[in-house]
Amino acid sequence: MQLLLAGASGGIGLAMLRQLLREARWVRIYALYRRPSPALESLAREEARLRLLQVDLSSDKDLAALPVSLEGPLNWVINTTGLLHDSESGKQPEKSLQQLQRDNLMAGFEANAVNHLLLIKALEPLLAKRETLKIASLSARVGSIGDNRLGGWYGYRASKAALNQLMHTLAIEMTRLNRQSVCVTLHPGTTDTALSRPFQARVPSHKLFTPAFAAGRLIEVLESLSPEETGRFFAWDGEAIPW
After folding, report:
1. Contact (Cβ atoms closer than 8 angstroms) between residue 222 and residue 186
2. Which ranges of 77-228 does DSSP label H, i.e. alpha helix?
3. Coil, helix or strand for 3?
4. Phi/psi zone of residue 158: left (φ > 0), alpha (ψ -120 to 50 degrees), beta?
5. What is the band of 92 on the pLDDT scale with cuts at 50, 70, 90?
6. Cβ 22 vs Cβ 47: under 8 Å
7. Got the DSSP string for 169-204?
8. Angle at alpha carbon of residue 203, lines to 211 and 5, rounded to 5°
9. Residue 242 lies in a domain
10. Which residue range is the domain that position 24 belongs to?
11. What three-state secondary structure class fits 225?
12. How large is the average pLDDT for residues 71-96?
């Protein structure tokens, strides 16, 4: 069994990687990251099954070169990457219509939706066709149109909704590739990471998860899902979330 995890240097991604490495069934784990990470490098020194690959998911050149560094079949593909705010560019979630900016909206759609599907496009020749195949991308409950009662956060909501639709469409095609495939989006809950840290002030302590807790629950949910549940959107506790 082989696994590829994108966003391995992030809070949830790194926590998932640490937990997955405890499972002997994974003979090889590919960990994709964009920026150097001492924590990842330390894991790689300790674990021969782990192979680190520096890949910018926004680069067509990087994606085209990626398959050369891999050996199939890949049984699980997990993408934990995403963008909510960026201190360098000044990007913040929009609270009103007048705060919308084209560049920020496009950056969000690229990071939160487009990159996820282009990664799978690059990996398609290596995906397991007869063995277990599970593909998961981290979405967010705010991407649910049916659950949107507060408004705001235009770009983040819309880009995550786009991810949900793209992954649902992908699930249909993946069924033709592998009838046992599971392709879903997952909501990790509010987790104490750099992505959510500026927005935690009003989050009750019992609803703010550690990366280790969120990672463990997400792995459990993905493990439990059957082909009949492909193309859907699930929360960290296994609850199905409306589109």
Report:
1. yes
2. 102-109, 115-123, 154-177, 211-224
3. strand
4. alpha
5. confident
6. no
7. HHHHHHHHH-TT-EEEEEE--SBSSTTTGGG-TTS-
8. 25
9. no
10. 2-235
11. coil
12. 88
